[in-house]
Design a protein that fits this description.
It contains 13 helices and 21 strands. By secondary structure, the chain is of the alpha/beta class. The strands form 6 sheets. Strands 1, 2, 8, 9, 10, 11 and 21 form a 7-stranded mixed β-sheet that branches. A 6-stranded antiparallel β-sheet has the order 4-15-16-17-14-20. It is globular. The mean pLDDT is about 95.
Amino acid sequence: MPDHLPRAAGTVVVGGGTSGNVIAARLALAGVDTLVLEAGPDFGPFGSAGWPADILDATRLGHSHDWGYDSGDTLPTRVAFERARAIGGCSDFNGTTQTWGHRRDYDDWAAAGNPGWSADELRPLFDEGTRMMRVKRYRAEELTPWQRAWYDGGTVIGLPQLETLNDLDETVGFAPEDNNIVDGIRWNTAFAYLDPVRHLANLRIVGAAHVDRVLVTAGRTTGVEVLWHGERHVVHADRVVVCGGAYNSPQVLQRSGIGDPRLLRELGVDVVADLPGVGENLHDQPFLLMSWTGSDAMSTAMQQLRATGWAPDEQAMAKAASSFDPDGFDMHFLPYSPTHRGEEKRWSCGVGALLPRSRGHVRIRSRDPETNPLIDHRFLTDPEGHDTQVLAEGVEQLRAIAAAPGMRELVGRELRPGPEYADRASLVAHIRANPDNYWHPVGTCKMGPAADPRAVVGHDGQVHGVAGCYVADCSIMPTIPRATTAMPAVVIGERIARFLLQPDEETR
């Protein structure tokens, strides 16, 4: 780990997160002079003493080194938007569930004017990402008692038992998850992608280096301004790839003068590129966590398993269909065991609405990069009420599973939402009053052709109108795939890296 900040680099990667580490590794392997600037710490390669225990522990979600983002007063209840500020990014925090979505998700991206992004073109990159992240698949017999109960119980409502969730042509079913877990360790992209290339002289990684803005002269990127050890520095570069994620990438662009001129002028930021789509199109899959009391039989079985040293909170997941997408799937069911609120233990299963129609935004409040932005997801605000109705249908399907003979004795009494929310109208009211997120924010630097007034980057990730400036992370997704976004984020890194290395290859 360098103890100094270089003054120049061929390519600067802003953010050593899920996608950024993929980009950096691929460029470095190709001989490109590459500098990774990570706002949080770089703990070093796997095995270094500095790695926090919660980041390594694959049985629970990570929580340390968080950016501290939340909904503020934009929602009826305050919702935390956990994002890791450390090398590895959100691959440090997530539940390690690796799902791909459906073919239509990516074919729709390509059809919207983004060549190179169809499902068939991305399939080899999903395979490569799966290999690099050392993804393995649980077997049904490895599931914990709580996970197995839901996996078996799903057949009551017609959910077939699948081997994997990751057939791009397959629709509904319950399956053991594919996970990037190695010997109990959450195998993040720092381990998977950076570690094999850390020895290369043309790769430098600097932690605690918070990039304020991209520097642009006469429409061309010339470098970045970065806060490092309390001082401002300029790093010159021929090319900058912003990989901060759906919350941070639009902030970097906005502070750089790339965005909606009205917002920028209000904050005294000189306008470099008039791109009103920067920070817009924010969406995530709204989520509702249902909970039950559990049972003595379930508690005993889980305690016995935990005594063996391995009982992860997440292991199985279902793809399910609401009435809005009867021929595909638009919901995830996620068993989760157990959660606590105060002294009360809760055995849970969540539902996520995978194809939300509600849209929000991310906007800087200040030119100070350490000032948290306004993050307004506007969950459940689509005019037709689609997102709320999908969640309500998911709750009703989960209730049907939980009420089945043999299952109801294991799950116990419903705690949340609770039996008082039995009819659709009261259930909808409860959902609207308790919005929550699935930790999959996307869309704030939308990918699309320059003719699209809301597009921020082209299909190759280059910011429209700013030569040498790219974005490569989940912020470029025009629409969210019906998936957890960890592996799609890796694939974005793989795809954009290939465009950077072979700019003329396009998509013949």
